[in-house]
Amino acid sequence: MSRSNLSLEELKKGILAGNASFIGRAITLVESRKASDRSLAQALITQLLPYSGKSLRIGITGSPGVGKSTFIDSFGAFLIQKEKKIAVLAIDPSSKISGGSILGDKTRMQNLVGNPAAFVRPSPAGVELGGVARATYESILICEAAGFDIILIETVGVGQSETTVKDLTDLLLFITITGAGDELQGIKRGIMEMVDLVLINKCDQVEKGVLNTLIGNLTIALHLFPEKKSGLAVEVKTCSAVAGLGLADIYTKIDTMAHQMKQSGFLISNRNLQKLGQLKRSFEQLLIQDYYENEELGVKMNGYNEAILQDKISPLEAAQQLFSFFKEKNKAQ
Ligand SMILES: Nc1nc2c(ncn2[C@@H]2O[C@H](COP(=O)(O)OP(=O)(O)O)[C@@H](O)[C@H]2O)c(=O)[nH]1
Ligand SMILES: [Mg+2]
């Protein structure tokens, strides 16, 4: 059965029944940039919206190699033991360059791959971050309609991807290890401000004293920031994804945080803000796309290059002229 001969109704039924193959196809559909796929994808998402929203969405970030995928695998297995259904998605704008990272991640998730209570989906390769963000959001909705209780979204600590995952999730976990220097780097890159829980992984291979120093430094770093909008304090926990240490404590913490966020109304208000932010971002993206698909405008833009380089016109003035031209053109259509 190819995707094209699946009707919207069949796809929806398959997803609501939690059928992994249908969920996979639906995600492939929302990842597609073909105009015909987009309209089908949008119709599907609209149909699924009433069934969405019930999961806890957790983002997981940290530098490459700290053990994010391994943690997701062992924590996911732990959650499955607690009768939870787990979906794993990835936001990886660098996959275009690193190529093998997607496969690498899947091989680190042996507890989850093939487990009926789990669904693992690597990020689309060769798609720019804006496209990955949209596809990930729609994939979250699909997984929620399919009945997954917890959605874990892995992202590499590269550029904008952390902000993107923050905008798509209820809780952001930051994984670090001793010797990574994340106490300072994390502050510089603005991550410490965004995170809800910090995990020090690989504690199986670290001396207690070294671990305590890092916990102390991270705690000091976290205190530099004002209270979070959620009202929850950011804690530092330790774990070993490989040895399965610390998972129960982390689960209790996350469960408590989720409960508190629901009680206070923060979970809903935060998601509402995220939805409205997405409207704005999606609209901006369509505008930009429209612009770049306009050949005439591209030619006109290039026409300014020489004049700008020779300081005959300022880049800002040229932009203004291009924008006026763009607006006139759209009016004429
Ligand atoms: N000793 C130890 N090694 C770990 C632990 N977690 C992950 N690793 C190893 O760290 C490496 C990178 O892990 P991976 O999950 O791919 O990291 P990611 O890039 O953050 O997703 C792998 O070789 C893992 O086996 C841990 O808790 N203890
Ligand atoms: Mg990984």
What would your notes on this structure say?
By secondary structure, the chain is α/β, with parallel strands linked by helices. Helices cover 57% and strands 11% of the residues. It contains 15 helices and seven strands. It has a seven-stranded parallel sheet, sandwiched between helices. It is globular, with a radius of gyration of 22 Å. Bound molecules: guanosine-5'-diphosphate and magnesium ion. The site of guanosine-5'-diphosphate has 16 residues, from helix 4.
Bound molecules: guanosine-5'-diphosphate, magnesium ion
Question: Number of DSSP strands?
Answer: 7
**Which blocks of ≥5 consecutive residues have pLDDT under 50?**
none
Envelope shape: globular
- What kind of sheet is the major sheet? 7 strands, parallel
Give the helix proportion (percent range).
55-70%
Average residue pLDDT: 89
Helical stretch count?
Answer: 15
Strand fraction:
5-15%
Derived from helix and strand composition plus strand pairing, the structural class reads alpha/beta
Strand order of the largest sheet: 3-2-4-1-5-6-7
Order of helices and strands: HHHEHEHHEHEHEHHEHEHHHH
Determine Rg (CA atoms, Å). Answer: 22 Å
Distance between the termini: 41 Å
